[in-house]
Fold this protein.
Amino acid sequence: MVGFYDYNIKLILLRALVIQILGIGAGLIYTVIFSEQLLLGEVEIPEKQDDITYVSLEGLQNAIQSKSKILLIDGRSESAYHKGHISGAVNIPYIQRDYFFETPIIVYCSGKSCNISVELARSLSGKFGFIHVRVFQGGWEEWVKGKNPIQTSFDR
Amino acid sequence: MIILAKLAWTGTVVRAFLGLILAWAGIVKIQNPEAFIKIVTAYDLLPAGLVVLWGIFLPWIELVTGLFLFLGLWHKSAVLSSSGLFFLFAVAVSINILRGADIACGCFGFNDTNLYVVLFQDLVFLLCCCFLFFLKSTPYSLDHCLYTYRSGGLS
């Protein structure tokens, strides 16, 4: 079988360039006709969204040092999180965010006599939509009685 | 000769497959350029102005390259253009893997894909391009038809 080959490297490169130009030309014509707002820069770039409140490094440091109640979430991958993360941060990998509400949650309070863990579990599964919510009835009392490891806020 | 003929037919299948993949990837992005621009922004590799241009023109370059590849017109140039695209994608994805960033790939739509799988795909496609580039001929290509036409029906 005989083929039609272009062995001339200049010709190959020139034609590759023509393919790019054809693509750019088609894109330009299409965009001018159908979505001119893109060329005029009227496109929403995520970083510039106003509905997000940003925090500076100092702001985060202050929030952590003042022991204010913040939930620090690390959106990177699980492997990046395990290699190192800001103290106290929990990991919700961005790629798994749609499965966030499938995260198993175990709620506890002081012990069998308290009821807030049950109420909290109801809120988490009802209002917030978490799917796997369970209550550890024995709570803090049973955990400590069993000499299980504990952590104080000062350990952070 | 039999092996060469088989290779040529494999080339046709690979060429058509890669062409369709690229054209499809382009069409999906063209339908929703703003979503694609947001994904390009998340890659965090280009300044804001270039992000928009890239978001507008890349899908069309993909589509046109895919069509050339699928039709088998200017075979080596189309393969070279595809290799360039797959190489750029592989570099962009690798940088974000090294950064530990979890971003949507934006390859064939806007669903999330594991970046390692995307990188593997890109490398496989690059290998396919190498195979096609060094292949002497693929049947059922416009190049082949043009050659046959120009040489007076001799094939």
The helical segments of chain B are 2-31, 33-43, 48-71, 75-99, 115-134, 142-150. DSSP finds six helices and no strands in chain B.
